[in-house]
Specification:
Elements: H1 11-21, E1 26-30, E2 33-36, H2 37-53, E3 62-66, H3 71-82, E4 86-89, H4 96-106, E5 110-114, H5 118-124, E6 132-136, H6 144-152, E7 167-169, H7 170-176, E8 191-197, E9 205-210, H8 211-222, E10 235-238, H9 245-258, E11 261-264, H10 270-280, E12 284-287, H11 289-296, E13 311-314, H12 321-331, E14 335-341, E15 346-350, E16 364-365, E17 369-374, E18 387-393, H13 404-410, E19 411-414, E20 417-428, E21 434-439, E22 443-446, E23 449-452, H14 453-461, E24 466-476, E25 480-489, H15 498-506, E26 517-520, H16 534-546
Parallel strand pairs: 1-11, 3-4, 3-5, 5-6, 6-7, 10-11, 10-12, 12-13, 13-14, 25-26
Antiparallel strand pairs: 1-2, 8-9, 14-15, 15-16, 17-18, 18-20, 19-20, 20-21, 22-23, 24-25
Helix pairs in contact: 1-2, 1-9, 2-3, 2-7, 4-5, 8-9, 11-12
Length: about 550
Amino acid sequence: MTDLDFKGLSIPESFDRTAARYPDKTAVVYLGTNFSYKRIRELSDRFAAGLKAKGFPRASGRVVMYLPNSIQWVIAWLGVLKAGGTAAPITPIYTPFDLEYIAVDTEAEAVVCSDRNYGYVTRVLPNTGLKLVIVSNMADILPAYKRFFGWAFDRVPRGKVGRADHTVLFPQFLREAPSSNSKTTVDPKGAAQILYTGGTTKHPKGVPIPHEMVLACAHEQISVSSALFPLDQNVIMGSAPMFHILGQTTFLGAILLHGGTIVIQPRVNIDALLDAVQQYRARTMIGVPSLFRMIIEHDRLDQYDISSLVYSFSGGDVLPQDLADRWKERFGKPIYNGYGASETVGGVAMSRPGDDIPAGSMGRVLKSKNILLMGADMEPVEPGQPGEIWVHSDPMVFEYWKKPEETAAAFVEIDGKKYYRTADVVRMDENGYLFFVDRTVDTIKHKGYRVSASEIESVLQDHAAVVAACVIGIPDEKVGERIKAFVVLKKDVKGITGYDLITFCRKRLVNYKVPHYVEFRDMLPKSKVGKMLRREIRAEERRRVQK
């Protein structure tokens, strides 16, 4: 497939064209069941027809995707886009607080959720514009015998789903959809989805991503492995979530464009993952650094033959050099890695097969991206010196959803080109390889997620006993960074423990944002104008760790 093959296409058009080329080939393997390209096309067409039969799109056309990785996720996502809508994929472990914020922020009129999240959805319905709830069980479109054994032996988690006019079960929704579905014209330059990303603000920021940019970036990033095998023969074992840009561009894109096969699991289980690699002879593995560490340290690793893997790619966080060295020594093949963000639609730089990749490098800049390394004075740094990386591409994301102030701060124009300020400090060597140095903003990277320190501080300060809080990331070789909160309590408060505050946070924050440690202080360092000096606490903590 050439670079020009998908120009001017929407995501539904690209997938349908790929399905026409490979109708009987397996596109998705989900819990041991194969779904052909033809089958996924039929099911996503029915999902789109079902939406339109219920009057979709009404006002906004936006649909929240509140599901784990699954075949249902793929069908619903494609179906929403085929109906002319915009998807808003979010992690299935979001709390009602997060769900309500995003449903209101996107003005969503429908949500596709798992049965285990149905209770959260019903809790927020009165405060949102959601009118339709489509509920899926992990196994509900698998063959009947698999559903029976899964439920009989309690292998399939289930949640309670109530009867209501606004609620419909996923299989029922597909059955009741009209068999004929008139095609909806979809603008390739229109937003296919709004992905939410962490940062320095209290709430996550929505990143609207056009159809054409999803396809262009996915094609470029998946094509990096084409030196190792034909892309239509690729079998990808992906643990990266599909609500995350890493999972979309390096995993989901294989079936949108190239006729590959993707193996989906609803959650990470190392034995199940290794067994799937062995069974389906996966050639590619996609994940964050912590996944590769769990594999290399797994007690039963020797019981599996994963020699078929020739391209292992790590994204979402910095790849520790000791992990890269251990993997290369154990398997004789490297872990390739890269650097990117939701705002850049994935990869800015990637390491490539055949390159002499220096230790610690994130690879070289991709052809579609132009970068500047800028100093604190907003001027380019000298060659070889670290600077904040600014990224331009064509096409490009230009804004955050309904956040003009954050947009103005993060997207700047230089010489007629718009650049995204990543707030990450990197350096480039004489051969064009990038190396991560530091972050300039208060963002914590935990298990590949970007976590806003300000968001956690805001939640802590809502506790009646807390007068001030400061949150930082503590380096950790297994998960990137762990979250530590420094808290000042009101003078008249007694008996509040770190456990109490962590329990309080769990009610408002998704699991990966909850602090791992709490340290109580009498006071926190502030500037002359009263601004919290996180850098002093961060430097103090790093000195303590290094001792």
